[in-house]
Write a structure and sequence with these properties.
Sulfite Oxidase, Chain A, domain 2; disordered N terminus; globular; 180 residues; disordered C terminus
Length: 180
């Protein structure tokens, strides 16, 4: 039906959006266009300058959250990627001023092939000195951020074997289409 969102993380006109909700006064859905309008101090022109392996423009998490009225009781940020059913819940304070949301590549919305429409990135995640904040907290296909008091849903690998299986499945060839 026309006018209905086109799945998780979409606006009524079908544009990709990043929903930010949970313990905030003003839940919102950020779109590519709205993120572009944030102040220049919120923008990072290319995350490669901060050690990312991939290119892309981003906004600083702190500025993304500022207008939402974050409840002081919030301790964790839930990062949800519906496309690949990947979820991470990590402590907010150690990353609040360093994390970024990558949303553009070469002036266009971040493509799916680059982990879009939105991708969470923590530059130098190891500097946080917390086991919970690892490379897997850099969530691709991000479509929802949830702010919680306490740890939320997290389905990241719990050991080296699970982690190896996850990354092996990411690089496995797609099965051929079924024939009838």
């Amino acid at each position: 039906m026309a006018g209905e969102p086109q799945g998780p993380g979409a606006t009524e006109d079908g544009q990709p959006s990043l929903r930010v909700e949970g313990r905030v006064t003003h839940p919102t859905a950020w779109t590519f266009a709205r993120l572009q309008l944030l102040d220049a101090s919120a923008q990072v022109a290319d995350v490669r300058t901060l050690g990312a392996k991939r290119a892309g423009a981003a906004v600083r998490l702190e500025q993304l959250l500022a207008p939402l009225g974050v409840d002081p009781a919030v301790t964790h940020i839930g990062l949800h990627g519906t496309r690949d059913n990947f979820h991470a819940s990590i402590p907010l304070e150690p990353i609040r001023n360093r994390a970024l949301v990558v949303y553009a590549l070469e002036g266009q919305p971040l493509p799916i092939a680059s982990g879009g429409p939105f991708r969470f990135f923590i530059p130098d995640h190891a500097a946080c000195h917390l086991q919970e904040i690892d490379e897997c907290a850099n969530v691709k296909f991000l479509d929802r951020i949830e702010l919680t008091a306490g740890k939320g849903f997290d389905n990241r690998p719990q050991d080296d074997d699970e982690h190896a299986r996850l990354h092996a499945s990411e690089h496995a060839p797609s099965p051929p289409p079924a024939t009838t």
